[in-house]
Amino acid sequence: MPKRLYLIRHGETLFNTQKRVQGWCDSSLTQKGIQQAKESRDWFKIKGVDRQAIYASTQERAGDTAQIVSGRSDIIRLKGLKEMDFGSYEAQPEYLNPPLHKDGTGYRDAFVFFGGEDTMAVRRRMVETVTNLMEGLEEGSQVLAVSHGAAIAQFFRGALEEAPDVRGMSNCAILKFTYDQGQFDMHYIYNPTQNEYIYRK
Q1: Which residue in 162, 167, 153 sits closest to 185, CA to CA?
Q2: What is the pLDDT of residues 92-150, one digit of tens each?
Q3: How far is CA 91 from CA 80, 98, 130, in A?
Q4: CA 167, 189, 158, 17 torsion: positive or negative?
Q5: What is the predicted pLDDT for the residue at 103?
Q6: In whole angstroms, what is the distance from residue 31 CA to residue 26 CA?
Q7: How far, CA to CA in Å, does 35 sit from each of 29, 52, 99, 171, 172?
Q8: Share above pLDDT 90 across residues of the chain, in percent, rounded to a whole number
Q9: Within the chain, where are the H helices?
Q10: Dihedral, 40, 43, 44, 45 alpha carbons, nearest 10
Q11: Where are the alpha helices (DSSP H) in 71-177?
Q12: Can you name the residues that pair with 21 across neighbouring β-strands?
């Protein structure tokens, strides 16, 4: 029986509103971000989704989102779910970012020269972390994991045989995956605050 993963981006943060680069640096959820997490929580209740375990990156914004969405405090923190490290660009205005490559490879090695991560390193880290997480679960398990926009995008681009060209991940977007016989399949990306599917297979 396939295992199910609900992967969520954290709620809106102070740096999101200030349009600052936010990777390994952190800022707290705004009131809107808290409300977004509550709307995700309500969506899971309506759908009747029961989750055996709750995971989050080690960053505050992800952990707080996970706790609000799940209503639980037994969050399992995984460093591998962290956002991309932008080096000395951290907390700087977003307009300083170099342009993204249109082939889904993000910034490639642009931030390595400033003490940050290569996009492909983030992809490998996320795929390895989530795969190991899923491999350790019993058949039929359903779990929730909260991560970050760039990290999530690189995960599905690396984990899927044919990844959809989806950009602009909304805060608290919910991505549903199944994992069966070593293969991930993405069923949808849902934005609970707008009540709309960003992507649906």
Answers
A1: 162
A2: 999 999 998 888 888 999 999 999 999 999 999 999 999 999 999 999 999 999 999 99
A3: 21, 15, 27
A4: positive
A5: 86
A6: 16
A7: 10, 24, 31, 11, 10
A8: 89
A9: 14-17, 31-47, 60-70, 119-135, 149-159
A10: 120
A11: 119-135, 149-159
A12: none
